[in-house]
Design brief:
Elements: H1 2-49, H2 61-80, H3 82-87, H4 91-103, H5 105-108, H6 113-142, H7 149-163, H8 168-188, H9 192-211
Helix pairs in contact: 1-6, 2-8, 2-9, 6-7, 6-9, 7-8, 8-9
């Protein structure tokens, strides 16, 4: 009797579970398409401008070791600051928490680890190819007589912030992260370093939010 009575209740959850799976799969697919398109735009722009975004992508062992160390260090530092996001009572941060909870949290709430990893990798590769691999390098060349790569760093970081302008607070956070990621690219002379840092941070931020289901999510890039 118990088994027969519980069967309809279990079946009632199936449509809802299926809806969640379809929704997160749709979001992951859209993210992959967008970030892949961004990467292709970077490659096309690099071909048109003569500033190839993969020029500083080095895969020899010393370069890989430097990129791994720098990427993990930057991502680890950013992740270590995540708890502050949930504790700071400053009004702009509090507003950002509320907005992120309402607009971003529902998108990834039901995603599994593999889906979060795919989304994070797509964002890390696509955005870094465009903003650091092509835009920052191209702007550095364009303003070679006025600060060169450092001017490129600042301008590309501003563009990165504008591209993430969910709110002005979020844009400022993204601008700061753009400076860090762009600086990492310049210091290591390897695009793999910001790709790794970006990917690891986004993945950790999403995982951290999943562990705090009842708390507003942390900002991702």
């Amino acid at each position: 009797m118990t088994e027969v009575a519980s069967a309809p209740a279990q079946d009632a959850h199936l449509p809802q579970e299926k809806t969640r799976t379809v929704r997160i799969s749709y979001i992951a697919t859209k993210t992959l398409i967008f970030e892949a398109a961004l990467g292709l735009v970077a490659l096309l722009a690099g071909w048109l401008t003569g500033c190839w975004p993969l020029e500083t992508l080095h895969t020899d062992w010393p370069s890989l070791a430097m990129a791994a160390f720098g990427g993990v260090a930057v991502a680890g530092g950013a992740v270590a600051l995540l708890p502050l996001f949930f504790r700071v009572s400053w009004a702009p941060v509090r507003r950002l928490r509320i907005i992120m909870q309402r607009m971003v949290a529902p998108l990834f709430r039901d995603a599994n680890i593999a889906q979060l990893a795919i989304i994070s990798i797509a964002a890390g590769v696509g955005e870094e190819l465009f903003f650091r691999g092509w835009l920052q390098a191209w702007l550095g060349q364009m303003f070679s007589g006025v600060g060169g790569p450092w001017t490129g760093l600042i301008l590309a970081s501003i563009a990165f912030g504008v591209a993430h302008c969910l709110t002005w607070e979020y844009a400022i956070v993204a601008f700061g992260m753009g400076l860090v990621l762009g600086g990492l690219s310049l210091v290591t002379d390897n695009l793999l370093a910001p790709i790794l840092a970006h990917t690891l941070y986004d993945f950790a931020a999403l995982i951290y939010w999943r562990a705090k289901v009842a708390t507003p999510t942390a900002p991702t890039l």
